[in-house]
Amino acid sequence: xxxxxxxxxxxxxxxxxxxxxxxxxxxxxxxxxxxxxxxxxxxxxxxxxxxxxxxxxxxxxxxxxxxxxxxxxxxxxxxxxxxxxxxxxxxxxxxxxxxxxxxxxxxxxxxxxxxxxxxxxxxxxxxxxxxxxxxxxxxxxxxxxxxxxxxxxxxxxxxxxxxxxxxxxxxxxxxxxxxxxxxxxxxxxxxxxxxxxxxxxxxxxxxxxxxxxxxxxxxxxxxxxxxxxxxxxxxxxxxxxxxxxxxxxxxxxxxxxxxxxxxxxxxxxxxxxxxxxxxxxxxxxxxxxxxxxxxxxxxxxxxxxxxxxxxxxxxxxxxxxxxxxxxxxxxxxxxxxxxxx
Length: 341
Prior knowledge:
The protein is of the alpha/beta class. Helices cover about 40% and strands about 15% of the residues. The strands form two sheets. A six-stranded parallel beta sheet has the order 3-2-1-4-5-6, sandwiched between helices.
């Protein structure tokens, strides 16, 4: 019988994409492992068809009710290891209802919100690690054989596959712009997105706007369309996560700030141009396309902190509502040229 492993990573979309690469590694190297994943409600909708995983959906909005449901779901079980891949105090408190021989948490440098109190083993220190590599450190702590490059197994239904193929066949060559991050200050200016969209469409390549059903996503897409001189296709709020994944898979290119669809695109091998000012793209950028990132983070954080990023705590954020303005249209265009001409 294989090892009985539980991992706790509730959110967000980008982070569960990174975690999925670690899970794929475990499944590939240890096919007999029994894996239970405690995951957020929205994030489950993306990963729910991953094979041979028991998902326990944890709806954090339900508070104590969610903790009690988790307790009942794992009642009578003892895991060989619990991978505590979320440092948030709420997740750490909830993890107490999960019995495990090893409770593996982050190393001291990456441990916050009393995270260390809930673990009896820590992953190895890994200075300046991308989030995905940090998650791979949990597999290392388990003793799972290493892999040279990460891979992902995020299946979708046959209906969603066919939907994606239908879009690709009708659209021809297209680029996806996913413009809305979770916070407005991390978004690039709508008029600059519009300028880039017009440039791409001048190359006979269609531009599609995508995003979730939230208010910020809707307002951002509408603002871009209002500034564009060409008509843009708008899928914002119109797709499920699996349909969005297929839309990203068939795209020539994805342009996005630090947001979930950028990392979803990485899982299906689509090139991504990431736009960064507040967070270090070496830590949170599209994993396979760090060379394509347009970033002003280094200058912003050094100006604010008085030190270069190499001398700051890993994960230090730059703050301010106007930082993304430092990214010019020309900077982004230079990264696009190799893809669309």
